[in-house]
Design brief:
The structure holds 2 protein chains of 2 kinds. In chain A, 36% of the residues lie in helices and 28% in strands. Chain A is α/β, with parallel strands linked by helices. Chain A has a 6-stranded mixed β-sheet with strand order 6-7-8-3-9-10, with helices on both faces. A 4-stranded antiparallel β-sheet of chain A has the order 2-1-4-5, covered by helices on one side. In chain A, strands 12-13-11-14 form a 4-stranded antiparallel β-sheet, covered by helices on one side. In chain A, helix 6 links the parallel strand 7 and strand 8. In chain A, helix 9 runs antiparallel to helix 10. The longest helix of chain A is centred in the middle third of the chain and has 18 residues. The model of chain A has no long low-confidence stretch (mean pLDDT 85). Chain B is an all-alpha fold. Chain B has one domain. Helix content of chain B is 78%, strand content 0%. Chain B contains 10 helices and no strands. The longest helix of chain B has 35 residues. Classes of the chains: A alpha/beta, B mainly alpha. Chains A and B meet through strand 1, helix 1, helix 2, strand 6 and helix 3 of A and helix 1, helix 4 and helix 10 of B.
Chain lengths: 330, 257
C-alpha cells in the first residue's frame, strides 16, 4: 500500500491539443498541454470556466479524440491500448448526474463496479468500506432521487471509487455541496488517498477544497498550462510579497497626500482608514521595494505601528496567476 | 469480465423495469388495443373474401414481428438519448468491455422482456379473436430472435445518429413506418425482399406461429440465409455505430445533450 506519492510517473500528458469547430468557428480548447502525475499523487487541475480542464480529462479518458499529443498511463500508450487504459481509470464527470436516480446507493455501486468487471460477491467488503468512509451506510437502500445533493454527489464518488482503478478523475466533485457536505467529502477523499494511495486528479472551482487535499496544482487558462507547482510553492510565491502596514494618524500629516505618494509608486496598493490609523495593503514586486515604501513613509513623517505579511490562500494565488501577477514575482 | 458486465446490466435493467412497471403495463394494453382495432377492422372490411384467413394470419404474424422490431430498433436509440440527457452515457463508454457490449447486453434483456410482453399480448389476442396459433417456444424463439437482432442492427445505426444529434425523437418516428413496410414485405413473393431486414424472419415466424410448422424443418438453406441476413444487419449497424462514435469523440459530443 502506498501512502504518499512516490517518484514514479503514473500519468503523462505530452503536447496535448484539441480544437472544436463550432458553426464554422474553430475553438482551440487545449493547446500544447504537457504535465505528469506521480503514482499516489493527488493533483488539482484548476482554471476558469472554459479553460479546457474537462477537455483534458475527457481526452485522457478516451471520451474525446485529441488532435495531437500522447497520453500514457502506467507507461502504456492510451491511444494504442484504449482497453488497458479503461481498466485503469474511473471518473466522476457530471457529479450526481453520473448515477441512476431510480436505483439505490448500493444498486448503483454494484452496477458501476460491475461495468468494470467487479462482482458484488468478491468485492462486497470493499463496497462496505466505501459506504463507511463516505458515511453512506444509512443511505444504502435509499433511491438516489430521495437523497440530498451532498449525498447524491457522494454516491457518484463511491461509484467511481468502487471500480478500484489506480487512477481516478473527479471533475467538480463539490459542485452544489454545502459547507458540511464539502468537508465530509474532502475528509473522505483524504482518508481514501492515504489508505489506498490511489492517484487522483481533482478539477474544481472550490479552491478551499483543492488547497486542503491536493499536494500540487496545474492551472490552465485559455487551453494552456500557466502554472504547474506544488500548493505550498504557489502560496509562498505570493505570501512573501503581500504586506499590510498600519500607520498612525498623528495631527499634521496629510493622509490623502501620503496615499497619493504611495499609489504613485505602487499603483496596486489599497488603503483603509480605521479610526486613527491607516492600513495599507501592498503587493511588492521585488523585496527591495520595501525600502522605497519606507522612504515614502519617512518623507511623510508617518509612524509605522505595525507590519504584517498577509496570509495568502489558494484562491488569491489562483486569481493573481490568472492576472499574470506571478511573472512579477522574483 | 464480459459475463460480469452482462450480469450487472441485466440486474440494473431488471430493477429499472420493475421501477417503471406501469410503463410496461401500459405498453401491453396499447399493443393489445392497436391490434384488436387492426384485426376487427380487417375482418369487417374483408368479410366474405376467399383469402381472408391467410390475410389475418399474415396480419397476426406481422404484428408480432413489428412489436419485436420496434423494441429492438427503438430501445437502443432511446437509451442513447436518455442516458445522454440524464448524464450517465459517458460512464457506460468508460467500461473496459466497450459501450457496444453494454448496449448489446441491455438489448438481450430487452429481448426477454419484450418476448414476455409479446406472449401476454398474443395470448390475450388469441382469446379475443379466436385465432389459432402454435406457441411452441423452441420453434418460435429462433425467428423472433432473428427479427429482433436484425432490428437491433438497425437500432445501432440509429443510435449512432443519436450519439451525434441526440435530439432525434421526431425523425426516428418515421422509422416505425419503414419497419412496418419491411415487416409487410412478403419475401415468398419477391425473392429480393428476403434480403431486406425483418421480411424473411417475419415469413418464417408466420409459418411457425400460424401454420404450426417446425422452424428446424423450414429448410437448412432458409435457416442459413436468415442467419446470414441477421449477421449482415448486425455488422452494418455496428459499423455505422462505430463511425458515429468516432465522429462524436472527435467533435466532443459524447456527453452532450
Amino acid at each position: 500500500m502506498i501512502t504518499a506519492a512516490d517518484e514514479t510517473e503514473f500519468l503523462s500528458v505530452q503536447h496535448l491539443s484539441k480544437s472544436f469547430v463550432n458553426r464554422q468557428r474553430t475553438v482551440h480548447a487545449v493547446t500544447d498541454v504537457s504535465f505528469q502525475v506521480r503514482r499516489g499523487e493527488l493533483m488539482g487541475l484548476l482554471g476558469p470556466n472554459g479553460a479546457g480542464k474537462t477537455t483534458i480529462i475527457k481526452s485522457i479518458l478516451g471520451l474525446v479524440k485529441p488532435d495531437a499529443g500522447t497520453i500514457t498511463i502506467d507507461n502504456v500508450d492510451a491511444k494504442a491500448n484504449p482497453k488497458y487504459v479503461s481498466q485503469k481509470v474511473a471518473a466522476v464527470l457530471e457529479g450526481a448526474r453520473n448515477v441512476y436516480w431510480r436505483l439505490s446507493t448500493w444498486e448503483n455501486i454494484a452496477f458501476f463496479a460491475g461495468l468494470h468487471g467487479l462482482s458484488v460477491s468478491k468485492h462486497k467488503d470493499y463496497f462496505e468500506y466505501l459506504l463507511e468512509v463516505l458515511k453512506l451506510q444509512d443511505q444504502r437502500h435509499t433511491p438516489v432521487r430521495n437523497l440530498s445533493a451532498g449525498y447524491k454527489q457522494k454516491v457518484a464518488v463511491a461509484c467511481a471509487l468502487a471500480k478500484r482503478t489506480p487512477l481516478v478523475f473527479l471533475d467538480e466533485p463539490t459542485l452544489g455541496l454545502d459547507v458540511q457536505a464539502g468537508y465530509d467529502l474532502r475528509e473522505a477523499l483524504r482518508r481514501l488517498q492515504q489508505e489506498e494511495g490511489r492517484t487522483m486528479v481533482v478539477s474544481s472551482h472550490d479552491m478551499h477544497f483543492v488547497q486542503n487535499i491536493c499536494s500540487r496544482v496545474v492551472i490552465v487558462s485559455g487551453g494552456r498550462i500557466i502554472t504547474d507547482k506544488s500548493v505550498q510553492d504557489l502560496l509562498s510565491l505570493f505570501q512573501k510579497r503581500v504586506y499590510r502596514i498600519t500607520i498612525a494618524r498623528p495631527d499634521g500629516i496629510a493622509m490623502d497626500r501620503l496615499a497619493d505618494d504611495v499609489r504613485q509608486r505602487f499603483p496596486q496598493a489599497t488603503f483603509a482608514f480605521q479610526g486613527d490609523t491607516l492600513e495599507v495593503s501592498i503587493h511588492l514586486d521585488h523585496p527591495t521595494d520595501l525600502y522605497d515604501l519606507f522612504d515614502i513613509l519617512r518623507a511623510a513623517q508617518a509612524t509605522v505601528n505595525g507590519i504584517n505579511q498577509t496570509e495568502v490562500d489558494l484562491e488569491t494565488a489562483f486569481l493573481k496567476i490568472l492576472k499574470g501577477e506571478d511573472t512579477l514575482c522574483g | 469480465m464480459w459475463l460480469i458486465v452482462l450480469r450487472a446490466v441485466w440486474r440494473k435493467s431488471a430493477l429499472t423495469w420493475l421501477s417503471y412497471w406501469l410503463n410496461g403495463l401500459t405498453g401491453i394494453v396499447n399493443y393489445y388495443i392497436i391490434f384488436a382495432l387492426l384485426f376487427f377492422g380487417a375482418k369487417s372490411i374483408g368479410a366474405g373474401a376467399p383469402h381472408l384467413g391467410n390475410s389475418l394470419d399474415t396480419l397476426f404474424a406481422s404484428y408480432v414481428a413489428w412489436m419485436l422490431a420496434m423494441a429492438g430498433c427503438y430501445d437502443l436509440a432511446w437509451n442513447v438519448m436518455d442516458e445522454a440527457s440524464t448524464g450517465t452515457l459517458e460512464q457506460l463508454f468508460l467500461s473496459p468491455v466497450g459501450y457496444k457490449w453494454v448496449a448489446f447486453s441491455t438489448e438481450m434483456f430487452n429481448f426477454l422482456s419484450t418476448a414476455v410482453t409479446v406472449a401476454i399480448v398474443v395470448v390475450s389476442l388469441v382469446v379475443t379473436t379466436g385465432q389459432t396459433i402454435h406457441l411452441d417456444v423452441l420453434n418460435v424463439l429462433p425467428p423472433m430472435l432473428a427479427i429482433y437482432l436484425q432490428a437491433v442492427g438497425l437500432g445501432f445505426a440509429i443510435a449512432g445518429l443519436a450519439l451525434i444529434q441526440k435530439r432525434v425523437q421526431y425523425p426516428i418516428q418515421v422509422v416505425q413506418f419503414i419497419l412496418a413496410a419491411f415487416v409487410l414485405m412478403p419475401s415468398t413473393m419477391f425473392t429480393w425482399a428476403k434480403y431486406l431486414p425483418l421480411s424473411m424472419g417475419k415469413d418464417m415466424l408466420q409459418e411457425v406461429l400460424m401454420e404450426g410448422k417446425s422452424f428446424w424443418h423450414l429448410g437448412s438453406g432458409s435457416i442459413v440465409v436468415v442467419t446470414a441476413i441477421t449477421a449482415l444487419y448486425m455488422v452494418v449497424g455496428l459499423g455505422c455505430f462505430s463511425l458515429a462514435e468516432s465522429a462524436a469523440k472527435r467533435r466532443g459530443l459524447l456527453g452532450h445533450y
